[in-house]
Amino acid sequence: MLPDKLRLDVVTPERHLVAESVDEVVLPGSQGSFGVLPGHAPLLTDLDIGPLVYRRGQERRALAVAGGFVEVLPDRVTVLAEVAEAAEDIDLARAEKAKERAEQRLKSGEVETDFERAQKAMRKALLREEIARTPHRREGP
């Protein structure tokens, strides 16, 4: 019999951010975004920079995640993220300043600029802004 819920655990080196029973999880995998429902086939993959969205009933919540690994089993999803932040933990002003710094590095054209690193910093800053501005929502009426 297939499970009707997933146990979601999101852990960073600093803390255990999420430990909940959920209905659905959407993750930013290294090969693209993918969804997980109860009964999903086992999977182990890298995480990219992007939103991790999970649903419990009609409520959706999102986290900003960057790097790490995810293990999917039929009844659980375990995320070991290098960075993961909930909307309420994101300092929007700080994220905006990080975006400005990344933009300056990308526009500088200086030979010593590490463009790959600057691009990653830009992606993280944009993601943090997006998550901070849309913390969670309920679906339906």
Structure description:
- By secondary structure, the chain is an alpha+beta fold.
- The protein has 2 domains: 83 residues, F0F1 ATP synthase delta/epsilon subunit, N-terminal (ATP Synthase, domain 1), CATH 2.60.15.10; 43 residues, Up-down Bundle (Single alpha-helices involved in coiled-coils or other helix-helix interfaces), CATH 1.20.5.440.
- 26% of the residues lie in helices and 45% in strands.
- It contains 2 helices and 9 strands.
- Strands 1, 2, 3, 4, 5, 6, 7, 8 and 9 form a 9-stranded mixed beta sheet that branches.
- α1 runs antiparallel to α2.
- The longest helix is centred in the C-terminal third of the chain and has 19 residues.
- It starts with 5 loop residues before the first strand and ends with a strand.
Large-scale geometry? elongated
User: Ends: how far apart?
Assistant: 32 Å
Mean pLDDT over the residues: 88
Low-confidence spans: pLDDT under 50, at least 5 residues?
none
Q: Which fold does the CATH topology of the largest domain refer to?
A: ATP Synthase, domain 1
Radius of gyration in whole Å, from Cα?
16 Å
Number of domains: 2
Q: Order of SSEs, N→C?
A: EEEEEEEEHHE
**Which architecture name of the largest domain does CATH use?**
Sandwich
Total beta strand runs: 9
Please count the helical segments. Answer: 2
The CATH class of the largest domain: Mainly Beta
Q: Quick one: CATH superfamily of the largest domain?
A: F0F1 ATP synthase delta/epsilon subunit, N-terminal
The quaternary state of the protein chains shown equals single chain
